[in-house]
Specification:
Chain A: The chain crosses the membrane at residues 16-33, 45-67, 123-146, 153-172, 202-222, 243-269, 325-349. The complex is a heterodimer of chains A (383) and B (413). Chain A has helices at 4-32, 35-60, 68-87, 103-107, 123-146, 152-172, 174-177, 197-223, 225-235, 237-242, 247-273, 283-296, 301-321, 326-340, 344-361, 366-380, and strands at 188-189, 192-193. Chain A has 383 residues and is mainly alpha-helical. In chain A, strands 1-2 form a two-stranded antiparallel ribbon. Chain B has 2 domains: 1-163 and 304-379, Rossmann fold (3-Layer(aba) Sandwich); 165-296 and 382-398, Rossmann fold. Chain B is an alpha/beta fold. In chain B, helix 3 links the parallel strand 1 (48-55) and strand 2. Classes of the chains: A mainly alpha (383), B alpha/beta (413).
């Protein structure tokens, strides 16, 4: 990668992969799948946002977070609060003892909309909050942890604890949050019925488009000097620190970026599924999200997208075909990933398919010949 | 009703068309009959009708929901043995909600949109029901929901075959006050909507009688340390502990009560629970909960011919060691109520069935006679049982009349 020609061919190759994904999401799926399946793919793609964020902070930055569900959930709750307020107009809730507030508040004898719900009447505030609420929390966690040089396993455990804390908080404060049931029965977005098949299709394209944009953004970050520093930090944190870089700030930045992506994913999830509940915030979904990323290949942005798609599709497929056995099939898949191909789908591709491709394409020139091995080596190094 | 746009017809659909073609060439007159009983494109043929079963058979809720699945399958098999519904054999499509609420919503959509099932029996927790509710309302499906729950809901697309909170609570509190002379109560539950709502209803009822609630506490789901609340109970000496602790927490709670020297058989204090069925006692152990009272509408030990036949059939089908709790029985009612409604309406159309719901009755229910109320809940009797060492309840009281379901009690409207 030292010479410019190979770097440029790398770019074009990555562009090609990106275009393949774009074509798959924007053309192939919408043509081949019926509305129900397309909506499912849309839901899977919202998890891909989290997986892309994890590639940045875990695969490249070496920060394993087991609490990404927190940011996914916060983004989702922000959107759900806006939609719930819209669904709880005084006319629609006239039979309540306090009309105009969400139904679960009424059941819990809350008689006034709490102050932190008020701003969610505004759509533009909600859009900002979807990104900023996760980012602010990530910033606080990041500053508190990274400035004190807490990292590795300790950081992972703390993020997991935060996921547990937030779940308990949401369930406990059911008058304000909807409790264990979550915020349900969301109907319209600015008067537009999000439950119709047409709306679901539109939301699918919005999700795909945003995801592709996020992948481009992440690629841009990784391609910059910042990306190199991240990888350097992952491999030799002390050397980077001794070279004069403020390691903590870089870590905080990439952790916040991953949180922002997760928040966007969460908001889109709420729109597509029509509700939000604490079951997406806790430890189990957070670990699942790490698995999506691991299956896809934690070093590869596009791999993470395929990982999220594949694992979720397998989940749906197995559970439809073998309702009593499907969890074993999923378990087998994960064990296979860890034992047989630790770099996930992307690693498999680099190792087996690329040499094949190379043989078939034969004389594409030296640049293409040397690159895959370099890439494969890069993939196999463990942080 | 919205239909999914299908750009690439699935195998099933193609087979469906092929089948239709073959059948149409064999006997054309059948078409009009099928249209009469099914004008909305449900998966109904001349000899079969498809229904859905949607419960968690994996994940944390699997232990609780398995009984419901078994009961629904048993009911379907029995109905088929009697000739089916409107002459059609019931075929069920089972999906796993996996104790995960969006999965429930996803599978509900699949059942209604792709499989076009005529009805769905399913869900257990309130959270899963809340998740599928918009789906059932959007596609005009019908769900039979078996669990006793907090009320505060009345959907045109759900039939609630379990008790709502007032049915479980009011009669049982009247009973402890009248028969046991209870004056003070300690309310204790897991921290989510059902115990909280139940305790609100209980508190209101207790205070209306001029009696006293001396404590009210909630613990997170899965909590296992009840020593501090047990100490408080010993200190305040309530006449009644009114408990709505759910799931695995029960095991810790009853063991710790016993370890702290509170012998429930002495009834000082007396323990009245609305959450421990025979299924839970399996986990808690009969010796730990012996003497406690439970307010439910069904106990396995109910002495009537319907229940005898039901328990016998259930054990023959699913094994001798099985116990049958309140929710299992309520789940068993679902297919039978649906059959009764379909036959009264003469159609599988959800809209036509909805019209005939009020007054649909079941004389063969294991719990005795039940009837569907205008509000889609069941009129049913409330019963109190006392837990025995062998894990069964001995029925000590039942209301004379059917209790009217009241999902939106005063103060909750």
């Amino acid at each position: 990668m030292k010479t410019t020609p190979s770097a440029s061919s790398l770019m074009s190759r990555e562009n090609l992969y990106f275009l393949v994904l774009a074509a798959l999401l924007l053309l192939v799926f919408p043509v081949l799948l019926d509305a129900f399946r397309l909506n499912l793919v849309g839901k899977y793609l919202t998890y891909a946002f989290v997986a892309v964020g994890l590639v940045l902070c875990w695969g490249k930055g070496g920060i394993l977070s087991l609490g990404q569900g927190v940011f996914f959930g916060l983004g989702g709750y922000c959107m759900a609060m806006f939609l719930k307020l819209e669904a709880s107009s005084p006319e629609a809730t006239a039979s309540q003892s306090t009309p105009g507030i969400p139904d679960f508040m009424d059941w819990n004898q809350v008689t006034e909309l709490p102050w932190f719900w008020q701003p969610f009447h505004s759509f533009s505030f909600t859009l900002i909050a979807v990104v900023m609420v996760p980012v602010i929390l990530a910033f606080i966690i990041g500053v508190a942890m990274f400035k004190r040089r807490v990292g590795g396993v300790y950081f992972a455990i703390i993020t997991q604890a935060i996921a547990a804390i937030l779940t308990i908080l949401i369930i406990g404060q059911q008058g304000f949050t909807g409790g264990a049931n979550g915020i349900t029965d969301l109907r319209t977005l600015m008067g537009w019925d999000i439950r119709s098949n047409e709306a679901k299709t539109v939301l699918y394209f919005v999700t795909s488009g945003l995801l592709l944009a996020c992948v481009l953004l992440a690629r841009h970050v990784l391609g910059s000097k910042l990306g190199r520093i991240l990888v350097a930090m992952r491999d030799q944190e002390d050397r980077v620190r001794f070279s004069g870089y403020d390691v903590a700030s870089f870590k905080v930045f990439v952790f916040c970026l991953a949180a922002a992506l997760s928040g966007i994913g969460g908001a889109l999830f709420t729109l597509q599924v029509g509700f939000m509940s604490p079951s997406f915030v806790g430890i189990v979904p957070s670990i699942e999200m790490v698995i999506f990323c691991a299956v896809g290949g934690r070093h590869s942005l596009l791999g993470a997208v395929y990982g999220a798609l594949l694992v979720n599709a397998a989940k749906t497929g197995f559970s439809e075909s073998f309702p009593e056995l499907w969890l074993y099939a999923m378990g087998a898949l994960f064990i296979a990933v860890v034992l047989a191909f630790p770099n996930g789908i992307a690693g498999l591709y680099q190792r087996y398919l690329m040499p094949l491709e190379k043989k078939m394409l034969g004389g594409l020139g030296k640049a293409a010949n040397t690159r895959p091995t370099a890439a494969a080596r890069r993939m196999e190094e463990t942080p | 009703m919205t239909r999914a746009k299908v750009t690439a017809p699935g195998l099933k659909r193609r087979l469906g068309w092929a089948g239709l073609l073959a059948w149409a060439t064999l006997g054309l007159p059948g078409i009009s009959a099928a249209d009469d009983v099914n004008s909305t494109g449900l998966a109904v043929t001349e000899d079969t009708v498809k229904v859905g079963i949607l419960h968690s058979i994996t994940g944390t809720m699997a232990i609780s929901e398995t009984g419901s699945v078994q009961a629904e399958k048993l009911a379907i098999e029995q109905i088929n043995a009697q000739g089916g519904v409107l002459g059609r054999k019931i075929e069920y499509i089972q999906e796993d909600g996996a104790s995960d609420w969006p999965t429930f919503a996803e599978k509900a959509r699949k059942l209604l949109v792709n499989d076009k099932v005529a009805t769905v029996f399913g869900c257990w927790t309130s959270a899963s029901r809340k998740a599928v509710l918009p789906v059932f309302e959007q596609y005009n499906g019908m769900l039979y929901y078996p669990t006793f729950y907090e009320g505060l809901e009345q959907s045109p697309n759900v039939i609630y075959t379990g008790q709502e909170a007032t049915q479980q609570i009011l009669a049982s509190i009247d009973w402890v006050v009248k028969e046991k002379g209870a004056k003070t109560f300690y309310l204790l539950g897991s921290d989510y909507i059902w115990p909280r709502t139940s305790n609100k209803i209980a508190r209101k009822h207790i205070e209306k009688k001029g009696l006293k609630v001396v404590g009210e506490e909630y613990y997170p789901l899965g909590h296992t340390q009840f020593n501090s609340v047990i100490n408080k109970i010993k200190l305040r000496k309530p006449d009644v502990i009114f408990a709505s602790v759910v799931g695995g927490s029960n095991v810790a709670f009853y063991k710790q009560l016993k370890a702290a020297g509170i012998d429930l058989t002495k009834e000082k204090p007396l323990l009245l629970t609305i959450s421990v069925t025979e299924d839970e006692i399996l986990g808690i152990g009969g010796e730990n909960v012996e003497g406690a009272y439970a307010s439910m509408k069904y106990f396995q030990s109910l002495d009537n011919p319907n229940n005898e036949a039901f328990v016998k059939a259930f054990k023959e089908r699913w094994g001798d060691d099985i116990v049958i709790g309140d929710v299992t029985q309520a789940a068993y009612l679902g297919p039978w109520l649906w059959k009764a409604a379909v036959e009264k309406a003469g159609s599988f159309d959800v809209d036509k069935i909805r019209e005939v719901f009020p007054g649909i009755e079941l004389k063969t229910a294991p719990e005795g006679y039940v009837r569907i109320h205008e509000n889609h809940h069941l009129w049913s009797k409330a019963r109190i049982g006392q837990a025995q060492k062998d894990g069964q309840y001995k029925v000590v009281y039942e209301t004379e009349d059917l209790m009217e379901p009241d999902p939106f009690p005063e103060g909750y409207k």
